[in-house]
Design brief:
Length: 151
């Protein structure tokens, strides 16, 4: 993901200005708000379940990685690109219907890495999954290494 136009001093971006991600269409993910310090998105449970009828853990991981990657990309822009290098998730409780909401907030914002915690909750506000995503921040195409601080 590259190139979202930031529209405010805090790096926030109009979600409609984010690059298209086909997987968001397939899973019904909707980005509600996006900035380097907080990225919020929703996903329906229906259509994203395992055979037992519960929200699939992999779908939660896609939501988590999407939100963390968007926030990291906004943090890294314009001279660096965020690439996910580690994702882990703990699934706390099952969900069988409704919509889940994910909120990504930074744990670490550095020169070469950014780490986000993503809390996913059900419609009653109960946490169903906690994920952590670390992104490597590499120089963007055309950026000079000595200017980026990456050696």
């Amino acid at each position: 993901m590259s190139g979202p136009r930031q529209t405010s001093a805090d790096g926030a971006c109009d979600p409609a200005a984010l690059p298209h991600a086909a997987i968001h269409d397939r899973l019904g993910i909707r980005i509600v708000s996006a900035s380097p310090r907080r990225c919020v998105g929703t996903m329906p449970v229906e259509g994203n379940t395992q055979p037992a009828g519960l929200l699939h853990g992999g779908a939660s991981c896609v939501l988590a990685e999407s939100l963390g990657s968007i926030a990291a990309t906004l943090y890294a822009a314009p001279d660096r690109v965020a690439l996910g290098v580690d994702l882990n998730a703990t699934h706390h409780r099952p969900v069988s219907s409704g919509t889940v909401t994910g909120v990504a907030t930074p744990v670490h914002l550095g020169r070469t890495t950014a780490t986000y915690e993503i809390a996913i909750s059900d419609e009653e506000g109960r946490r169903v999954c906690t994920a952590r995503l670390t992104c490597y921040l590499r120089p963007a195409e055309g950026a000079r290494r000595e200017d980026s601080g990456v050696r």
